[in-house]
Amino acid sequence: MTVKDIFESMDYGPAPESASEALGWLADRGGIAGHFINGQWGPLRDDFASNNPATGEKLAGVTKGTADEVALAVAAARKAQPKWAKDGQARARVLYAIARLMQKNARLLAVMETLDNGKPIRESRDIDVPLAIRHFYHHAGFAQLMETEMPNAESLGVCGQIIPWNFPLLMLAWKIAPALAMGNTVVLKPAEYTSLSAMVFCEICTAAGVPPGVVNIVTGDGETGAALVDADVDKIAFTGSTAVGRIIREQTAGSGKALSLELGGKSPYIVFDDADLDSAVEGLVDAIWFNQGQVCCAGSRLLVQEGIADRFYAKLKSRMDGLRIGDPMDKCIDVGAIVDPVQLAEITRMVDTNTSGETYQCAAPDGCFYPPTLITGLAPADTLMQEEIFGPVLVATTFRTPTEAVEIANNTRYGLAASVWTENINLALDIAPKLIAGIVWVNATNLMDAAAGFGGVRESGFGREGGWEGLMGYTRPKGKMAKLTAPTAFTTTDGTPADPLDRTAKLYIGGKQARPDGGYSDPVFNKSGKLLGHASIANRKDLRNAIEAMAAAKGWSKTTGHLRAQILYYIGENLSARSDEFATRINQLTGTKTGTKEVGDAINCLFTWAAWADKHDGAAKGVPIRGVALAMHEPVGNIAVLTDDTRPLMGLIEPLAPALAMGNRITAVASQPFPLAATDFYQVLETSDLPAGVANILTGSHADLAPHMAAHANIDAVWSFSTADVSHVIEAKSTSNLKRTWVNHGTARTWPSSIWRAQSTEVKTIWIPYGE
Ligand code: NAI
């Protein structure tokens, strides 16, 4: 080729990165990836192969971890944990040393990652590895600050961590750095396709002075992962498919293990007609062709405003024609290999079975490569608009108005991320809060940082990684849990003839008193057997009515904290005016003299949450770009609560007040043995300006209602403080929409306000770059 030829085509010449160092590194270690337990390698077996997807060649044999090997790793982690948790400064030094050594070995890590995963070396070198390093630096700081800035937090213990193959080293860093910073020890299982960069990481740990047992790696497949979920760990942190997330939710149900799930997505990429179209096209290259589209937050669903659609698609196709697809070790390559032929076959199947719209594809080399693909003209309900393809395939549709854009964007079971492209900041900031997603990028895409929360809502999972909010997933508040004992209702009558007047307390649904659907009620007696009244028995239909009422009251979530504060103060005042009556009622129900104190506590609680209603501020995160990442606190949505039945009034007020203060709608089931204080309370609500449907109160069997609450798709979170044994069923049934759950496993404690606030809100991170 002559210089003239080059000038004519303007093609890039090959710029290959050498694989020899990384291959030599593997050969020196016997060509086998396996366990790193208690600071030692082994056992190492060639149970299955890890291949280079770009060439099909075997890179190494991988050990498939058995349940016994997982148990050994967990035991090592357990033994090492107390000492590791003791000294934050020592942890900071070790994390800092890891970051430094990763920097020193950055090229080896990047090459290993690209060989094993197939991603372009440009990406592993410039994105995966630097971001992983940043995580360790940033979290070294959190380790240092834990003692002084988080004096009430303590580590969870041993964390089991299961990661996918799309960002093997970065996901390892996201999992290990915060866990270690907060004084936990870990057992991490890499994905079966990509175990090799974790091996390099283990050697870095040894060199950095990580004490034996603090970081343990167990290699293997889904069965090894399942054994880790079952092992004696205090938390499971999982990133991967929604299907496996569901299995893990069910498997850990009732175990008391903490759980965070970062799952799939089908993130919208919304382009308004006033957007900088060239930037929006360039953004798409990063949104859907970065890492071959194998990105959980990939901008895989393009929504373009109708008037510019043709022009935009034309620009996009011309940009696609310029994408360079091929050998990932070539520094000029934009799109590399798909991680494994199994994934390639799945992408191919999904695209080939689609019959809608128009498909535009680039050329791709033979082998484990899939061509960048654009499918336009799809309807929002088409399979490819709904299902995660997890490949370089962009699906597109058009919209007319901002309202329609939001509707289509939210028409998904996922809620991970979204991008909004417009030059109008008013429009961008109007749309961002309306999108149901954990992350929103304004005129940007796929921005991530250790200081900013990452994670989703709906079937994209729960929990956040990164930032102060991510640390909550690796700590718990100090303090002991007490065993709960169920109070018994007084059931014997003194024989006094029943009051001929009907004293059946109704349910409170949609701001109205409602008779129970089933028409049944239970008598409620005092200690000496006098009938106090009847309490309705709510069934599934009543619960559904309450859920409909919460949905109709969604305007509450958009009200200002100021307004919510006023209403909570007003509720507090109205309760205060009836203190004596409530105190007497509590004493009658429980047969104790605790009524006056309990009413005082309830009033104080309402005032406390009135105070918080307009003070649970978000944050502007100092991320290393020109711009900010805003951490916004949004309500969770519809919360269903089984209340603490030992305290007839406070059991209701304690969850109700923070839930309402943070803008949620709530359906609470009153204390089962002592229901009548809660039913009296709706008279307070009726006189307190609370909009209908924001708070609904049911009475009846906790055990009967729990599974229906957990399974209902329009409930976003279920809390249980009940003495009934319902924790297991709630967690197991919550897989329907992967709702958040907060259950007590038969124990009780006083939760600090930080926990109530965190449970009542979602953190949405809105990235707003500015300037050039
Ligand atoms: P996967 O969810 O099966 O694998 C992720 C990790 O979980 C791996 O380490 C795997 O060994 C482990 N695992 C599998 N079954 C398990 C079980 N029963 N218990 C515990 N651990 C288990 O994902 P896979 O099969 O690799 O990819 C399938 C699809 O999942 C992709 O096509 C994509 O749609 C989605 N996916 C989404 C990711 C995300 O970040 N959202 C990441 C990877 C895959």
From TrEMBL:
<dbReference type="InterPro" id="IPR029510">
    <property type="entry name" value="Ald_DH_CS_GLU"/>
</dbReference>
<dbReference type="InterPro" id="IPR011408">
    <property type="entry name" value="Aldehyde_DH"/>
</dbReference>
<dbReference type="InterPro" id="IPR016161">
    <property type="entry name" value="Ald_DH/histidinol_DH"/>
</dbReference>
<protein>
    <submittedName>
        <fullName>Aldehyde dehydrogenase family protein</fullName>
    </submittedName>
</protein>
<feature type="domain" description="Aldehyde dehydrogenase">
    <location>
        <begin position="528"/>
        <end position="746"/>
    </location>
</feature>
<feature type="domain" description="Aldehyde dehydrogenase">
    <location>
        <begin position="48"/>
        <end position="478"/>
    </location>
</feature>
<keyword id="KW-0560">Oxidoreductase</keyword>
<comment type="similarity">
    <text>Belongs to the aldehyde dehydrogenase family.</text>
</comment>
<dbReference type="Pfam" id="PF00171">
    <property type="entry name" value="Aldedh"/>
</dbReference>
<dbReference type="InterPro" id="IPR016162">
    <property type="entry name" value="Ald_DH_N"/>
</dbReference>
<dbReference type="InterPro" id="IPR016163">
    <property type="entry name" value="Ald_DH_C"/>
</dbReference>
<dbReference type="InterPro" id="IPR015590">
    <property type="entry name" value="Aldehyde_DH_dom"/>
</dbReference>
<feature type="active site">
    <location>
        <position position="262"/>
    </location>
</feature>
